[in-house]
Amino acid sequence: MRLRGLLFTVVAAVLHCSCSSNQDPEGAVEGRKQTLDRIRREGVVRIGYANEAPYAYLDQLSGRVTGEAPEIARVVLKRMGVEKVEGVLTEFGSLIPGLKARRFDIIAAGMYITPARCAQILFSNPTYSVGEAFMVLAGNPLSLHGYEDVAGNPEARLGVVAGTVEREYAKKCGIPDDRILIFPDPMSALAGLRAGRIEAYGGTSLTINDLMSKTTSSDIERANPFSDPIIDANAIRGYGAFGFRLGDEPLVEAFNRELAAFIGTPEHLDLVTPFGFGKEELPGPVTAGDLCGRSARAKSGDAARG
């Protein structure tokens, strides 16, 4: 009887561990529930960013993490009772894995809301909307004025940054994988362009504008005119927002309340104008729920979000 009882106890313990592991593979359910309470109690929040101006980057002179997303985050989080923001530098393609691994609490990198990403993380409502652009060599030798031009020219190679939507745009516009080169950041893509590894670098119009503003060289230019990619009969325009872990709905809801009271105000526009954002980049009434789509919300178990 004692042996049978011991065996039952061991089996029950194994089953308990197995079930707990399946329910929460990261073992962080309690931590997720308490994220909002924790950052308010401690007065500190960690934000992940990818050093991509003008969205989020480290100012070398001041040592301050700045850009559109970190500066908005500071205002919104202060209104939520969180005074201190600490930056965690991460490659763009590692932001979502880093968030899931709890290296930081919020992605503040101007990340576009897409259905695929919505299946992995939660998003705030968007803070901006922007189109695309190409950086090319001076004179635009291959006349590349959009993704379709690259797709139609077998000699054209496009550079994109790892983890960004530009790779998805390129593939959906018919550019084969062997003509899409992946770089860790915009400066690496610029170097690849100058080295002749690619014929165009594709990024958001604000990213390209920022790079152009920081160079005095005449060997590169912004492709002009430029046509945004047409996907599923729609001209694509990106909407950027903040990212949160699944399960952090209380934090997202509190963040969205303050965000709604701030976006579009004179204070907001004064804050983001130095980074190249203006009234033209305001997101309008579009919400995260609109952009995630019903299928993605259902897949991520976030049917009430948006």
Describe the structure.
Helix 4 (68-79) crosses helix 11 (249-262). This protein has two domains: 29-129 and 238-300, Periplasmic binding protein-like II (D-Maltodextrin-Binding Protein, domain 2), CATH 3.40.190; 132-235, Periplasmic binding protein-like II (D-Maltodextrin-Binding Protein, domain 2, 3-Layer(aba) Sandwich). With 306 residues, the protein is α/β, with parallel strands linked by helices. Helices cover 40% and strands 20% of the residues. The strands form four sheets. Strands 1, 4, 5, 6, 7 and 15 form a six-stranded mixed beta sheet that branches. It is built from 13 helices and 15 strands.
Secondary structure: elements and pairs:
Layout: H1 2-23, H2 29-33, H3 35-42, E1 44-49, E2 57-58, E3 65-66, H4 68-79, E4 84-89, H5 95-100, E5 106-112, H6 115-118, E6 122-123, E7 128-130, E8 132-137, H7 147-151, E9 158-161, H8 165-172, E10 180-183, H9 186-194, E11 200-204, H10 205-213, E12 220-222, E13 230-231, E14 234-235, E15 238-244, H11 249-262, H12 266-272, H13 288-300
Helix pairs in contact: 4-11
